[in-house]
């Protein structure tokens, strides 16, 4: 399959450039008549920059060719100085698509194929929906299952597991206090316009009758709720989690759309996240860790599921999608020896804050608050720390106010680290750090685990060699022969 | 046969010594062992593991139990997966005992010389600053700061010679098996790292001027997370180690080439 940008992209580029530089263009337009030297230079400079960036985009649009070959993607770029980049197919971790309003008018999307390394990510900005599906299919297809592709796709229909209903959205907008968003917006407008300069507030208030005032307040409340619901609606309308036999898809957005898809075996870990407020509501956020970069999003990253998913529903989803990442009960907890450590560790930050109190006495009170907060933090962290080692999986729970439970496979772990500070050694405890592959790496720290568990954890980690499959091509013997075969015309001297 | 479920099952630690399994297990009573065995047996049947392994397990546990050599400290409930893990250990396929090695004793000399040079330079700078304070009429209290720094630097030299360098030399350990790289380091905070060979991305040999004088090299091993450094080892050892690691690290796992 070969991909080239459609010529329509030139038109889109023009509009996109205008949209991005709207502010500059506006200023130039305002000063169009002025004859000052400075403005002239600025105008010509802006026109030059604008022209060059448009030319650059034309160049990119016309002379980019992407070949989707069996072994990987070849990207050909340029006319005068040509470059070719090759990315092997196995390197791709996930696929993300985005469509802003302008792109949706053209019926296209931008698609990003993420690898573990930033240099080899591929982004195509103007791809029709049909092509998007093809590319997604190409990238996420397992190399070993090449032959059964046709059957596999027909055999497993995409199955929708979760969609937000209007009720969900209304509930979410209420729970997230999004109607309070009118306060910063209103303050912003107020500080920009300064209506108190033009109108005398007191005289206006005295003229308003009681009923009119109530009406105005009601109007404000309606506006607040409307804006709140619109905000939530915009980000969570048609929020869909679906899957087929080998992939998981997440889609969301109303005006601008976004999607995220990943192959199930590329999921590095699943994180169950719950802060205090979520715990009160009985909801859980689920996060899928991918080794590829996750594109930044306005309010919530795409690899995190709908934040107002009821806990039971969240567990059910994981049980269906990734049954091996299901949560089970913990077996090991923070050592009771560490109870004293909660009080013995010096509260450094709090004392620093209190030290400022010698100059500004207010900080004494602040220091006291920070101190109390530190100890609550420590107690909660001690209570939450737990883990469970299984034959091929591990479960780690940590965090003070936001409790994070990470479930991952042993084979996916990058490194194991034990740390014992002087104080910890006195009480026979240690910190355990386990690293997961993500972008950047995800480190989970378990504080104050009993030291005598070290051999158990170490040998559990060492047994990972049983889980991983070694790539036969990287084996030394095969590599030696293939990498540098001795040409027939070379005489080998052997003494 | 029915056994009462124990409240607490106790075991201390399990390790292997030259392929001979030593299991330090202590249950609170004999019935509890039988209970654990039964659970293990059920697990084995489910996992299609032969009973030969189980008998080995029984013997090891019972011997230890009868001799009562163990002082138990840790209280944990033994789950099925942990019993399976014990059996896995007893199969003897697992653990190669790690042979930890020390860095070169020349590391002390290199470190001392490094420290001496930096100390001398900072002494010169501090003296210069002291006279500057005099000459340009800076704050008066700055003089005391310079004097204090001067004394600290002076004391620092014998401190590195007699205390910190020997400790540094003694604490750092590294070990290598076919599958993992082990590093132990740290004086105040002791750190132990286990890095799988397949996750190592690149290896670098580093040699500064002072290190060249003493014929030692450092190895920097880079992983996805960052990396670890083995400082100051003998030149031949370093080159051999580099070759060993690069040979072992060449293997890559199937899911992330």
TrEMBL record, chain A:
Highest taxon, organism lineage: Bacteria
Keyword entries, A-Z: Membrane, Transmembrane, Transmembrane helix
Stretch forming the signal peptide: none
Database matches in Pfam families: bPH_2
Annotated TM spans: 37-56, 169-190, 210-230, 348-376
Domain spans labelled YdbS-like PH: 64-138, 236-317, 382-443
InterPro entries for the chain: UCP026631 (IPR014529), YdbS-like_PH (IPR005182)
Coiled-coil regions, chain positions: none
Keyword Membrane appears in the UniProt entry: yes
PANTHER family, alphabetized: UPF0699 TRANSMEMBRANE PROTEIN YDBS (PTHR34473), UPF0699 TRANSMEMBRANE PROTEIN YDBT (PTHR34473:SF2)
Protein name in the entry: YdbS-like PH domain-containing protein
Source species of the chain: Geobacillus stearothermophilus
Lineage of origin: Bacteria, Bacillati, Bacillota, Bacilli, Bacillales
